[in-house]
Amino acid sequence: MGYTLNFNLIWRHFDKLWGGLLLSLELAVISIAIGIVIGLLLAVWYVSAGRAVRTVIAAYVEFIRNVPLILLVYLVFYGLPTVVDIAYSAQTSFIATLSLYSGAYLVEVFRSGLEAVPRGQLDAGKAIGLTPWQRLVHVRLPTMLRITLPALSNTFLSLFKDTSVASVISVPELTYGAQWINFNTFRIVEVYLVVTAMYLLTGYALLYALRLVERRFRAAH
Amino acid sequence: MLGQIAYALPFLAQGFAVTLWVSLLVVVLSLVAGVMMGVGLVYGPAPLRWAVRIFSDTIRGIPILVLIFFVYYGLPAVGIHLESFWAAVLALTLFKTAQVIEYLRGAVGSIPKGQSEAAMAIGLTFRQRLAYVIFPQAFRRFLPPWINGVTDAVKGSALVSLLGITDLMHAINQVIGRTYEAMPLYILGAVIYFVVNYALSLASRRLERRFSFIRE
Questions:
Q1: What residue spans define the domains of chain A?
Q2: Which CATH number applies to A8-220: 3.40.640.10, 1.10.3720.10, 3.40.710.10, 1.10.940.10?
Q3: DSSP letters of A109-130?
Q4: Number of Cβ pairs closer than 8 Å across A and B?
Q5: Is the distance from CB of A35 to CB of A106 less than 8 angstroms?
Q6: What is the largest CA-CA distance in chain B?
Q7: CA dihedral B141, B43, A158, A210 (to 10 degrees)
Q8: A86 close to A80: Cβ distance less than 8 angstroms
Q9: CA distance to A71, A124, B9, B166, B199, per residue, from A74 (Å)
Q10: ipTM of the modeled complex
């Protein structure tokens, strides 16, 4: 059976996709920023804490990493308000979920980076009389960052793609826009071709930018 | 509340069986397709290498959800009619295949070139080199990440609920629709997914440790 591609309707509704892409990026940036804070704090705490704290942090990380994101999204948006007295928009709810989700992945990335910092560097820091705080900020974290940058880039990219799950609670991001056009115009193949291209271009542009940062960082040290 | 959930358990168990069935199909099909395409990527002629590279980078560059919708809504539009179950399996298999290709490339790439050259020097054919020299060694590198990656198939399978397939995720939502016990049921669902995936990631870690004695 023949299928004739016709992109006219896609361009007519392109604002749905363009606005969706911007919202996807916004969701990703905010969630990743919060996730970085969670990840850094917990990772630094983890490597210096006793057994009990480690177990709790590990439990958080393992739980989030082993449950589908869509279930977490439902749980926070539909489940949580039934037991605690809070009300939030779908968008806020998704940002909260993706932040906790990215936090768990980033703890893992940062923790393995911190543990890979050579012992000699810390001893050297101690030898020149740096305080523990100075050793953390000037020795441990910069070295850790350099070690983890490649893994970090990949995690960012996959979190950007994960924003598509927000469509299941009707957050009008890119995948939601695609579905809207799918159901309202039936130019199905066209809309998913365009959306695929948009995700690919954005994703690989992001990755390229992060690789540039990596290279610069490596040269600086 | 507990009574209602207990009443729904057989229904949830059926959904869970569908989740496992989808995951199993996806894992097996993607293993076969991924290993073949991975070998094509490492040893194939340039056009084949390019084709596999573009396939893998495209699939890995888009969200699974977009892939699922593309396959589910797109195939009938071009005249290919698949049951929603098989459309979902196909989409998830494409996603997993791209992963398997990369695991295989990484595992085979970690085998020193000398191994291949030595095998060539004693006159082994290409198939013999793969079967007796490269694969047995690459297997140890391939297995731990691959098992860990099975969790991605199980987690990804929760998205098929959006196509109206009654997997565990969809079963949970349906029971919530009738009972309004959202929180206990989502937590129950999370625990079930967690147990399956955590067991897989523990197995992966254990194997990795077991194989770690092997030196380069």
A1: 8-220
A2: 1.10.3720.10
A3: HHHHHHHTS-HHHHHHHHHTT-
A4: 115
A5: yes
A6: 71
A7: 110
A8: yes
A9: 5, 49, 20, 16, 24
A10: 0.91
Put simply, the answer to whether B63 touches A71 (Cβ < 8 Å) is no
**Cβ(A159)–Cβ(A102) under 8 Å?**
yes
Q: Say whether pLDDT at A216 is over 90.
A: no
Contact at 8 Å (CB) between B81 and B75?
Answer: yes
Per-residue pLDDT of A118-176, as tens digits, reads 889 889 999 999 998 999 889 999 989 988 998 999 999 999 999 999 999 999 999 99
**CA A115/CA A133 separation, integer angstroms:** 17
**C-alpha–C-alpha distance, residues B129 and B113, integer Å:** 12
For chain A, the farthest-separated pair of C-alpha atoms sits apart, in whole angstroms, at 76
Length of chain A: 221
Residue B206 CB neighbour total at 10 angstroms:
12
Q: What is the pLDDT of residue B174?
A: 94
In this predicted structure, which of A7-11, A191-195, A199-203 has the lowest mean pLDDT?
A7-11
Task: Please tell me the distance in Å from A146's CA to the nearest CA on chain B.
Answer: 22
Q: Give the pLDDT of residue A221.
A: 55
Task: Identify the DSSP state of A75.
Answer: I
Q: What confidence tens digit (pLDDT) does each residue in B28-37 have?
A: 999 999 999 9
Which pTM was predicted?
A: 0.91
User: For B2-211, which CATH superfamily applies?
Assistant: MetI-like (1.10.3720.10)
- Which of B60, B66, B176 should be substituted to probe chain A, the one whose Cβ sees the most A Cβ atoms within 10 Å? B66
* Eight-state DSSP code of residue A69: H
Half-sphere exposure of B52 (CA within 13 A, CB side): 24
Cα separation, B139 vs A185, in Å, equals: 48
- For B169, name the nearest residue in chain A, comparing CA atoms only: A71
Neighbouring residues of A171: CB distance < 8 A, sequence distance ≥ 6? A23, A27, A90, A91, A94
